[in-house]
Amino acid sequence: MKHIIVLSLFFVDKLSSGQTQTLESDEAHHAIKVMRLKTGEEIKISDGEGNWVSGPISEVGKKNLKIDVTASGIEASKKPELVLVQALTKSDRNKEMLELVTVAGVDRIIPWQAERSISKWQSNSYDKWTSSIKEAGKQSRRVNLPKLEKLMSAREITEQILASDCILVFHESANEKFSALDISQNASSVYLIIGPEGGITDTELEIFKSKGGNLVRLGEPVLRSAHAGFAALASIQTKLGRW
After folding, report:
1. Per-residue model confidence (pLDDT) at position 230
2. How far apart are alpha carbons 45 and 64 in whole angstroms?
3. DSSP label at residue 49
4. How far apart are CA 166 and CA 192, in angstroms?
5. With bands split at pLDDT 50, 70 and 90, how would you rate the model's confidence at 106?
6. How far from chain centre, in Å, is Cα 211?
7. Torsions phi, psi of 234, nearest 5?
């Protein structure tokens, strides 16, 4: 039985096209000071868009390290695209939510300022969410990081939805079980809409339903907003045969 070695993953803004790749800034600090990686140890470096290189560390400086590239590749995006529309959760739960949905394989995340969201989007929220996504990507060895969209309202979200998209609104009042759904592999995107702790308003439900949204429920227990996205993604990954 072949033993698969899972390499530590780090990110750069852009990969080099040469035979070496340099890691700098915070990523290099984590590799050198926290993980204490040494010359000769092999790591993987990605641009977060599916492109990656790997190889042994050839140089370790004070603030950067370099690897000799011995392998490279690209991880293509899967279809249908899994899009999480996540109502802003309590601020102390956003990081946990982002970690869960990233490791569960979400492709795109749309922060939603729902009418009943307790938290508000701050000037540094985008950077904080991006950082949490990257950390979760490293932990789960994802070379293709989820794309984070700008903050949107329910109406702005529906304006970008196409006729070929599947829209699933997870709501405790729904009569249809998720297990009874038939999701087409030909859908361009599957939108998973998760409301805030206070619930989705009737007005918001009508906005999503007017675009073809289906109200569904995962089960009897009511999940926290920060956990529901993970449960929905795990369920749909299984239904699509990916897990």
Report:
1. 97
2. 13
3. B
4. 9
5. very high
6. 24
7. -60, -40
Structure tokens belonging to residue 228: 């529901």
Return the closest-CA partner of residue 82 out of 243, 197, 210, 240. 240
Phi first, then psi, for residue 68 (nearest 5°) are -90, 120
pTM to 2 decimal places: 0.93
With contact defined as beta carbons under 8 Å apart, do 109 and 86 qualify?
A: yes
In the prediction, which pLDDT does 90 show? 81
Average pLDDT of the chain is 94
- pLDDT tens, residue by residue, 11-53: 999 999 999 999 999 999 999 999 999 999 999 999 999 999 9
**Vertex 106 angle, CA 105 and 110, to 5°:** 165
Detail the DSSP E strand segments found in 140-229.
147-148, 166-170, 176-177, 189-194, 214-217
Residue tagged 């899009």 (tokens): 83
pLDDT digits (tens, 9 = 90+) for 171-189: 988 989 998 888 888 899 9
Residue 5: per-residue pLDDT:
76
Which single residue is written with the structure tokens 């929905």? Answer: 232
Give the chain's largest Cα–Cα span.
60
Q: What does the alpha-carbon distance between residue 83 and residue 199 come to, in Å, rounded to a whole number? A: 20
- What is the spatial distance between Cα 110 and Cα 74, in angstroms, rounded to a whole number? 25
Nearest to 231 by CA among 106, 93, 79: 106
